[in-house]
Fold this protein.
Amino acid sequence: MTGTPLPGRVLQGIPRFFHELDRELGERGLSYRSLGPCPDTKRLVLLDNDDAAEIFWVQNTWLNPFQFEFESIAGAAQALRDIQRNWAPVLCTQYRRGALIQEKLPALPDKPRPFPWKAPEAPMGSWTLLDAHTLVASPRCTSPFPGGIIAFTENKTDPPSRAYLKLWEALSLAGTWPHKGERCIDAGASPGGWTWALSELGATVLAIDRAPPESRVQNRPGVTYLKHDAFTLKPGDLGKTEWVFSDVICYPPRLYAWIEAWLASGLCNNFICTIKMQGPSDNETVRRFAGIPGSRVVHLCHNKHELTWIMTKV
Ligand SMILES: C[S@@+](CC[C@H](N)C(=O)[O-])C[C@H]1O[C@@H](n2cnc3c(N)ncnc32)[C@H](O)[C@@H]1O
């Protein structure tokens, strides 16, 4: 069963940031319509004139959606199972019927994951119901996490902030992370959530911030604190390092200029940086980040009004 292919991609909006998706699509001249009867009109959006450009303000992008009619719950589940194993529901209507279909599909792990965790390579599809007998499904999606969402087993005692969760998510998406003894620069490190997570992996961390990290992080083995404006430090001042991280609150062009200097220096190959938005999002700079070969920009489910730029060379 392959059904009827839909003409473009389906975008799964982020409930708190529908306005950003709206703006982004407008900037690109892309028109769209809501898929089915979602009360939140941008929960699932079908692009009318898809130009295949990367869209950033989404939870997940459905790459090859198709629509099909079905008679019975068992028939719908069978049609999905015939394609592949993993399917995540994204329902806006027909919740009971949707739950009954999902019960007949292989169970998705619903427990929080410990970190480090590598996403399985098997594809994770998404599906929704438009009405009692019409299903839209996409076997391929940009996120390996069900519905674009991942939960980790949290450590509620050691890290001083919950910011480490977005670092864990970014590293899980990258499929790689710092190993024992690797050198990391953590710009905008305080109060110390990312530095804590990196030192837990056995990496050595140079934590740069104008304000000190909490002492329990600063005193961890392998952690050194440097009180400085990170962006006035040139790559040559900091030297060769396996990883550069930034969670600095700043205007995106300032971060971009610093990263450009790192790329030109050849002193680091692996980067994870939060692109923080102050006011309406600066999508022009976001597109410049995304244009850096071998890298990508995503909205993590642990991101707030910000995006994450990821570049790793394994
Ligand atoms: C969102 S917090 C970082 C949280 C941190 N990643 C964690 O896990 O706890 C942003 C930090 O950026 C720092 N910051 C802002 N501008 C900076 C700059 N130019 N250089 C270094 N740090 C800066 C702030 O002092 C603040 O501690």
User: Anything to note?
Assistant: Residues 39 and 181 are 50 Å apart (CA to CA). The chain has two domains: 4-147, 164-311. The chain has a mean pLDDT of 95. The pocket of S-adenosylmethionine is lined by residues 161, 163-164, 187-194, 208-211, 229-231, 247-250 (CB under 6 Å).
